Amino acid sequence: MSDAYVFDTGPLSHFAEAGWLKILQALAGDRLVLIPEVVRTEVSEATHLYPFLTQILDADWIKTDRSDDVELIVAHARYTARLASGRKNLGECGVLALAEVRHQIAIIDDRVAREAGEEYGVEIKGTLALMCDGIRQGMLTVPLVSRIADDLLATEYRLPLRPGQFESWARDEGWI
Q: pTM here?
């Protein structure tokens, strides 16, 4: 199932807050979309503060992987030792472990987590890259993705650009 996407909490929560969660569903297409149990827990525990997160829990296209085999536990422990601080970054650890062990694609925007996963051969894609794929495939337009990026920035999502800069940034990066 190497074409499945394993999403981190950050992309899902910020897309939900900005009102663009369905874009992620469209970009996933026929791919299986997974979250590890730890991401579901992070989202669930925050719904009382951020009710918009219930969209993630209610989305029938997002499946929770509750696997607990030894290989997955070992990979999760390795990422936890490197990335976690208390309960911080546990979602990234779960995503990277699941993507590594099951040979799936991790959807993570956090730079440090991305670097850790890449060291272990995890295929990683950020949300901007995912949306640029959508532009190249004719599913999305540059003006639409520019609006989405600006809306994500308004939710205080960390992206490597400022409002109004998506198109120039993506062209400079060679993504569109």
A: 0.94
Residue type, 1: M
CA distance 119 to 47: 33
Q: What are 5's strand-pairing partners?
A: 33, 105
Residue 54 main-chain phi, psi, to 5 deg = -60, -25
Q: Which run of H or of E encompasses 142? A: helix 142-154
pLDDT tens per residue across span 21-39? 999 999 999 999 999 999 9
Q: Do residues 6 and 34 lie in contact, with contact meaning Cβ atoms separated by under 8 Å?
A: yes
CA distances from 60 to 11, 34, 41, 86, 108 (A): 17, 11, 17, 30, 21
Query: Among the residues of 4-53, which ranges form H helices?
Result: 9-18, 21-28, 37-46
Give first-to-last CA distance, the chain, whole Å. Answer: 28
Distances (CA, A) of 113 to 22, 92, 117: 25, 6, 6
Is 88 in a helix, a strand, or coil?
A: strand
C-alpha 18/C-alpha 151 separation (Å) is: 6
- The CA distance from 161 to 52, in Å, is 25
